[in-house]
Amino acid sequence: MKKEIENLLPEKYIDDYRLADAGGEVEEIRLRVNSPIMFYGKTGEFRTGNKNSISKEDLEEALEYIFGYSVYAYENEIREGFVTVKGGHRVGIAGKVITEDNTIKGITNISSVNIRVSHEINGVGNKISKTIFKNGISNVLIISPPMAGKTTLLRDLVRIGSDEYGFKISVIDERGEIGAAYMGVPSNNIGIRSDIFDNTPKDKGIMMAVRAMSPQIVAVDEIGQAKDVKAIEEAFNCGVKVFATIHGRGIEDIKRKEELKRIINEKYFEYFVVVKKCDRGERIMQLYDENGCELKE
Amino acid sequence: MKAAGVLLCISAGFLIGNYFSENIKKRYMALNNIRRMILQIIGEIEYTRSNISDIFYKLSKKQESPYREFMEYIHSETEGTNGRLKDIWKRGVDGYFSQLKLTDKDLEMLEKLGNNMGSIGIRVEIENLELYIKEVDELLLNIREELTNKTKLYRMLGLFGGMAIAIILI
């Protein structure tokens, strides 16, 4: 994993990263023009002794690595402000946004980059999986704010469901963050009975998977748009269970989202998992049933 | 003895003429192979939208030497992010294509292609590659004319040159 991150940085900053990540703590790396390189971990911001400012050329070099020397391959992602690179790491970009008819056409003069280091933690879902898979397969919605670990949990639940419970799972990996597939083959462990639809839009991927792979579970990250919810409903109607994640602070927060109101109120999801990050950087997982009542072990 | 000397001069002259005409053929073939390689790259970009490294890895399997080695080199260097693409590309062109019978202008044109590669959106990326194809097409057209006109000329010049030297020596 370290090599994947090093491959995104100009050579002169690789030693800084190595020094900063000696204990494997780096969660974010910030590159800003005219500022020194900064790192973020569980306990917040930290820096190495390098006080040199990042030049425009340094950032351009980093961007060339981040885009895999192929801007054309990331055009759609750039419009959304972030790309997912090899290893499932997410890189956010900021600069001058070009708009036309109120639509974002692209981002130019990129001045800031935020590399969010993806962590594959096998076993993070062990505890809650015992409840979730107790009665066979269920629909599960994982709720958390950004950077709290919902994708990590989803990936591990997929691995457990596939390896330990023997379910056929289709993973719709629009951003490549679940399986981190390289040339179509996942580099993260998503289980031996999982099929990956890499770089596939969620709504289209769900229906493709249902038709093509006869899955028992479809796993999808960061739902939220009406078309995603519609595709999930269609999967429900086909008898396929869904593991999904969404941004939010809790169940009440999700209930307020217009697109999701109906499927939440009709209790399609049997389980909700709320993931939070406490001040010390540790993750807390709370499991709720379909009525929103917390389940204690 | 004289007959052998005459034969040697004529043969040498013919072979020199032949060497120059073969070089034109080799240049034609090299440009044609590069053209085919770029067309395959355009196809991959359009169809798969994969990144440069993946495309070069995939296409390297379909190439013959030295195009295969060139593509493998670009793949391994971009995979390991060993510098800017324009520098990697230049190193690849210098390292693998300088032995081909390409002219300095041909090599320069190919090196320039790497300057903009991968740094722009899909439409401009393809237009950029297609522009290179157009330029190569023009070169190929010229070489085809050269092939019909100059091949014979070189061979005859070589042959007559050899004969002339033989006569002078006699």
Give your account of this protein's structure.
The complex is a heterodimer of chains A (297) and B (170). In chain A, the strands form 3 sheets. In chain A, strands 11-8-12-13-7-14-15-16 form an 8-stranded mixed β-sheet, with helices on both faces. In chain A, strands 3-2-1-6-5-4 form a 6-stranded antiparallel β-sheet. A two-stranded antiparallel sheet of chain A has the order 9-10. In chain A, helix 7 (202-213) packs parallel to helix 8 (226-237). The model of chain A has no long low-confidence stretch (mean pLDDT 89). Chain A is of the alpha/beta class. Chain A starts with a helix and ends with a strand. Chain A has helices spanning 2-6, 11-20, 56-66, 75-80, 126-132, 150-163, 202-213, 226-237, 251-255, 261-265, and strands spanning 28-32, 38-41, 44-46, 82-85, 89-100, 103-116, 140-144, 169-173, 181-182, 185-186, 194-198, 217-220, 241-247, 271-277, 283-289, 294-295. In chain B, 84% of the residues lie in helices and 0% in strands. Chain B contains 6 helices and no strands. Chain B has helices at 2-48, 52-60, 67-79, 85-97, 104-116, 122-169. Chains A and B meet through helix 3 of A and helix 2 of B.
Keywords:
heterodimer; A: 297 residues; alpha/beta; 8-stranded mixed sheet; 16 strands; B: 170 residues; mainly alpha; 6 helices; 0% strand
Helix-strand topology string of chain B: HHHHHH
How many beta-strand segments of chain A? 16
- How much beta of chain B, percentage-wise? under 5%
Number of helices of chain B: 6
Helix/strand order of chain A: HHEEEHHEEEHEHEEEEHEHEHHEEE
Strand arrangement within the widest β-sheet of chain A reads: 11-8-12-13-7-14-15-16
Task: Specify the overall morphology of chain B.
Answer: elongated
Number of strands of chain B: 0
Which protein chains make the most extensive interface, counting residues with beta carbons within 8 Å of the other chain's beta carbons?
A-B, 15 and 20 residues
Relative helix content of chain A: 25-40%
Radius of gyration of chain A: 20 Å
Uncertain parts of chain B:
none
Distance between the termini of chain B: 11 Å
Q: What is the oligomeric state here?
A: heterodimer
State the secondary-structure class of chain A.
alpha/beta
Shape type of chain A: globular
* Helical run tally of chain A: 10
Portion of residues within helices of chain B: over 70%
